[in-house]
Description:
The longest helix has 21 residues, at 78-98. The protein has 5 helices and no strands. Among the domains are: 35-64, no CATH class; 67-99. The chain starts with a helix and ends with a helix. The chain has helices at 2-18, 37-46, 53-62, 67-71, 78-98. With 99 residues, it is an all-alpha fold.
Amino acid sequence: MLRTGVRKARQLALAAETIRPVRIRHLRMSTTIRVSDDTKTKLSALKSDDESWDEFLNRLARQERDIDKLGGFADDDIVADMENAREETREDWKGRLDS
């Protein structure tokens, strides 16, 4: 019985010497996108804290947005509206200064 135990111990020791740990590397494809510090700051403000940059850019790319809203463009009446607001403001200040 003792001999069987010693034999098993030798077999295990021999097996331990021949088995070597293997390191497996997980390679992921990645892309580097260069942006200015200003652009990175703007994007960071839109990105949620709990999402990766990949998730954020996927979300941003999937969204359908109206180009006018994105660019901050106004309707055709904006010039007339601004002129009216300027005239109202001038009249208001003129009334305050005359009082």
